[in-house]
């Protein structure tokens, strides 16, 4: 058996450097594949005649699918069948991408995005553990196998210290590939058509299948049965419906005027019913899909709180997008190109994490610093937002925010995993993805977009009082526009309407800029409060005496542990 895995997952004739290159190439579609792509959202909305909320909802469906996979995380990463998983997974993603490129149905788009997220996360996690073993000779599954936990305080602390570097490095790798994928999809939509993004990803799927088919041998499954029972997919369905209904309420609430719309009311009731059903199923099953006991761990609750605060504060990333779109009228490709500066911020965040580990800095100071960076970004935007903003200066707030995001994004799991039994690891990954990619972003985006809308309406009403014929400048501009429209053959009524619309557009721009400035100030104070909170929370470590072997292996089927 070990001979079969000597150069796993490749044939013996594949040299290791070439194998690592192949594995990195395979990561690209796994990370960037999605039912919708935010970078081509403008072209997609105009091509299909849909609202931006459709794009946002489908994106959250992808995240929900990724979270729904997570409770199966340990069982699947231990299966050593890379060729089979890649060929089947890429084939499914190919078909789903084709459907997404053709459909204009929100239901089909959301369903395909959900399935894509599930398959994509399956491939991503399995492939990551294979790459770690192949490239570095480390059997990473031992670090998540119940019963293999450290037995001394020194060993637990050493593992926490190691994670302060390893996790930022892994996140940096994923985030850079993700950002490059975003830029590439924006360029394809800008240079060609939005459907080309799906076609390009389908071509990448075929290339991945060809690489896997010719370079990897087929490995048989050595266990008598598959480790995942089909009955658990009922729990997956309940979990997915629960989160999809929640995302629908948060995304479409502003557009549909919240609970005045019957679909929002129905979705709210569905979310509550399926939440109760999910809790009931997990508490009554002998072999649960989601271990509810995990919420008894203090460190897990710390992780939930931190990810929630981070993603709500990080929703302020919309400031740059709104400012550049309203004040500078740039397109999606220019916006994505500007977004490439996040890679600099991610790298700076990694450097801070490495220095913190070398200096043995407590994690609370890193969390505090992360929120201060996001607050610094908000403060920069407060002073930068103006009528004559410069495109080139927008790289600085992006770098500042991404530095703080990287510090928090990559190091929160370190505190959440602190002396946590490995049997909770799969459930924690599910919680992390659910809070980090669904619940907190949904609430954060709903909060920021609703506040922006209300403040825009307030300032439009306030500024409009000064834009009448008593203002010489306004009257002069209005008259010039009327004459210009009449010279072009418009009737007097049409010319007056277009001149009024021109004045209204100026008021709208001013109202938007002032609203961003005001919200940036609120975000700055919110980040200061979060940073102060990091310093007053008692970050107590768990007593190692509680981690008995009986507790570590509670309800664990030891026969199914380890590599398969």
Automatic annotation (TrEMBL):
InterPro entries (alphabetical): MFS_trans_sf
Membrane topology: Multi-pass membrane protein
Top-level taxon of the source organism: Bacteria
Major site of localization recorded for this protein: membrane
Keywords carried by this UniProt record: Membrane, Transmembrane, Transmembrane helix
Classification via Gene3D superfamilies: MFS general substrate transporter like domains (1.20.1250.20)
Chain coiled-coil ranges: none
Protein name: MFS transporter
Organism: Segatella sinensis
């Amino acid at each position: 058996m070990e001979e079969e895995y000597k150069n796993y997952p490749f044939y013996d004739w594949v040299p290791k450097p070439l194998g690592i290159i192949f594995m990195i190439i395979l990561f690209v579609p796994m990370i960037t594949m999605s039912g919708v792509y935010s970078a081509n959202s403008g072209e997609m909305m105009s091509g299909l005649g849909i609202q931006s909320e459709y794009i946002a909802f489908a994106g959250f469906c992808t995240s929900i699918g990724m979270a729904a996979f997570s409770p199966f995380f340990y069982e699947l990463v231990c299966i050593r069948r890379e060729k089979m998983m890649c060929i089947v997974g890429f084939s499914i993603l190919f078909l789903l991408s084709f459907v997404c490129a053709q459909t204009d149905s929100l239901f089909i788009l959301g369903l395909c995005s959900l399935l894509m997220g599930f398959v994509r996360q399956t491939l991503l996690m399995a492939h990551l553990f294979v790459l770690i073993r192949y490239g570095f000779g480390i059997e990473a599954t031992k670090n998540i196998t119940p019963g293999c936990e450290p037995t001394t305080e020194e060993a637990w602390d050493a593992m926490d210290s190691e994670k302060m570097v390893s996790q930022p490095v892994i996140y940096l790798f994923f985030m850079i590939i993700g950002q490059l994928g975003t830029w590439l999809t924006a360029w394809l939509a800008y240079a060609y058509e939005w459907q080309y993004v799906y076609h390009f990803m389908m071509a990448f799927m075929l290339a991945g299948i060809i690489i896997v088919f010719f370079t990897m041998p087929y490995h048989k499954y050595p266990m008598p049965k598959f480790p995942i029972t089909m009955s658990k997919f009922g729990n997956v369905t309940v979990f997915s419906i629960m989160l999809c209904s929640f995302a629908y309420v948060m995304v479409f609430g502003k557009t549909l005027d919240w609970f005045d719309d019957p679909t929002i009311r129905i979705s709210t009731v569905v979310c509550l019913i399926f939440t109760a059903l999910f809790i009931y199923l997990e508490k009554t099953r002998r072999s649960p899909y989601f271990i509810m006991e995990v919420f008894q761990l203090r460190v897990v609750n710390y992780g939930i709180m931190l990810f929630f605060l981070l993603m709500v504060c990080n929703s302020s990333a919309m400031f740059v997008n709104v400012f550049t779109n309203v004040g500078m009228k740039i397109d999606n490709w220019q916006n994505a190109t500007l977004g490439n500066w996040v890679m600099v911020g991610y790298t700076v965040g990694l450097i801070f994490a490495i220095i913190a580990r070398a200096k043995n800095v407590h994690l609370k100071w890193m969390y505090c610093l992360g929120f201060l960076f996001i607050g610094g970004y908000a403060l920069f935007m407060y002073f930068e937002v103006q009528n004559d903003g410069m495109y080139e200066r927008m790289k600085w707030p992006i770098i500042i925010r991404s530095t703080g995001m990287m510090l928090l994004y990559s190091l929160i799991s370190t505190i959440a995993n602190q002396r946590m039994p490995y049997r909770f690891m799969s459930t924690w990954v599910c919680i992390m993805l659910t809070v980090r990619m669904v619940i907190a972003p949904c609430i954060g985006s709903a909060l920021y977009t609703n506040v922006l809308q209300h403040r825009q309406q307030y300032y439009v009403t306030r500024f409009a009082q000064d834009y009448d014929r008593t203002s010489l400048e306004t009257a002069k501009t209005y008259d010039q526009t009327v004459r210009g429209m009449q010279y072009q053959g418009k009737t007097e009524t049409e010319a007056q309407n277009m001149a009024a619309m021109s004045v209204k557009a100026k008021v709208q721009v001013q109202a938007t800029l002032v609203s961003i400035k005001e919200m940036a100030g609120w975000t700055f104070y919110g980040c200061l409060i979060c940073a102060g909170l990091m310093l007053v929370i008692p970050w107590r470590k768990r007593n190692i005496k509680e981690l008995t072997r009986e507790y570590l292996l509670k309800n664990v089927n030891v026969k199914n542990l380890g590599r398969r």
